[in-house]
Write a structure and sequence with these properties.
The chain has about 400 residues and is an alpha/beta fold. It is built from 16 helices and 14 strands. It has an 8-stranded mixed sheet, sandwiched between helices. It has a 6-stranded mixed sheet with strand order 11-10-9-12-14-13, with helices on both faces. The protein binds adenosine-5'-diphosphate (ADP).
Amino acid sequence: MPKVIAVNAGSSSIKYKLFIMPEEKVVCSGLVDRIGHQDGIFKITYNKEEHKEVLPILEHGKGVELILEALKKYHIVEDLSEIKAVGHRVVQGGKYFAKSTIFDENTAAIIEKLIPLDPLHAPAHLLGYHAFKKALPDALELAVFDTAFHQSMAEEDALFPIPYELTEKYDIRRYGAHGTSHQFLAETGRALFLQDVKHPRIISCHIGSGASLCAIKDGKSVATSMGLTPLGGVMMGTRSGDLDPSILDYISTCTGKDVHEIYTILNKKSGLLGVSGLSNDTRDIEEAIKNGNQQAILAGAIFARRIADYIGQYFVRLGGADLIIFSAGIGENSDYFREEILKRVEEALNLKIDYQKNKDLNHQTALISKEDSPIKVAIIKTDEELMIARDLEKTLNGTL
Ligand code: ADP
């Protein structure tokens, strides 16, 4: 019964979850937050009780130390050697990784090379890797890439129509993201709802503050909405998603801002936040819509429209669909936005939705389509950490 940890290291935080495998039992989970600050936060939830401490956590190494100390303090492990493997979520694997890969110095060197593609997360992943390597030198470390699942895309789906020389020289292509989640959703959706379908066609909608859609055929990603970086695709909490690229030049001419400033606007000040002028959080947007706020109504409508358009596109891309999945913060919890999206595609796709079920079944994994719907529609709770733990177990068994 090996214990394994799934780790998500960000620039100032480390999220973690300890599993016993193959039982897939979550033993504890937690978060180290505000790394780099005197008032860092350490949290661990064990036996349904959350313990929290505020203390200086100046670097990732200290955060990892606190995690491991807590595991011993609460007798979650008696000896650190019980932890056989550590799996790190890595956002960008570029063209180099089509599956989870042993995290060693070679992998670290490639991730380092990819920093220009993901300056926000890649350095944090490397800090997380080095900190765990130092603290648990005998544990296996694995890098689990958000991009790996999408490496199966054909060139016509992945490449952008720019001069080929640029594509080749700088590896410019659609890498996508949320791959671990889309793979989990497709596997779960197939097992729960498509047992009798030989070649399942699935449209997976991971809609959280970051959002992406994925077209999945026979378990493989054939198209996804995020692009070179997570800025592409549908509208998100603060990201614009797809745009006419001339907008960049035009904003620059009008405002005198340079490309980096505009890029920041498109990443951090656009999307639901930018259009509504209120918030990037759908809970606030829904409330404002109820109160008749016109900007919120517009933001919500564009949001739903863009996701609906991608569903239509992927229906065509897959030659039909057997299952549409809603997941992540908004997909799992917002019956309002699921309904807004589905209303925009149901006629064309001949969907039969049980809108009462849609209202009643937030936070659950369940079908919201009626028996006679030619395409099933489901809410599925995503679990990226469990996917990481499964890959760790397979690696330990030599079956990855
Ligand atoms: P991340 O991309 O940060 O992982 P999540 O998948 O956790 O994001 O999604 C967070 C978003 O989910 C919030 O910003 C909010 O818009 C939305 N959300 C969470 N809970 C609810 C809810 N109960 N109702 C509506 N929207 C929700």
